[in-house]
Amino acid sequence: MASSPACIFCKIIKGEIPSFKLFESDKVFAFLDIQPLSRGHALVIPKFHGAKLTDIPDEHLTEILPVAKKLAEATGAVDFNILQNNGRIAHQVVDHVHFHMIPKPNEAEGLGVGWPTQATDMDKLKALYEEVKAKM
Length: 136
Prior knowledge:
Its cofactor is Mg(2+). GO terms for molecular function: hydrolase activity; nucleotide binding. By secondary structure, the protein is an alpha+beta fold. It has one domain (8-134): 2-Layer Sandwich (HIT family, subunit A). It contains three helices and five strands. The chain has helices at 8-14, 64-75, 122-135, and strands at 21-24, 28-32, 42-46, 80-83, 99-103. It has a five-stranded antiparallel β-sheet with strand order 1-2-3-5-4, covered by helices on one side. It starts with 7 loop residues before the first helix and ends with a helix.
């Protein structure tokens, strides 16, 4: 399984750095975030090291969402966000794929998100659709 000696999350998986482990299997590790946005904020990470989602083989991603769902249920979160960032400009800080399960108990706690929508040019949208669909 891919691992990086300098990666903080790989060190957490190996037990070299302590964590508040909530779940572990052959492919996945989940633990409480030490800088939470709200009570119950947790991370779910594949044990396979890769910086971005596209670096992780599909077979190492199969448990991620079921574990995130179990965390949401275990924390009692009614409203919550599942967040995964790829790259610095997309707000990724640790270069190991990780999914946040962030309870949103009220307007002040949890994840705050802006959603700057853009006007749509239907011809350009159709061309994009055809381009992406052909690669799927």
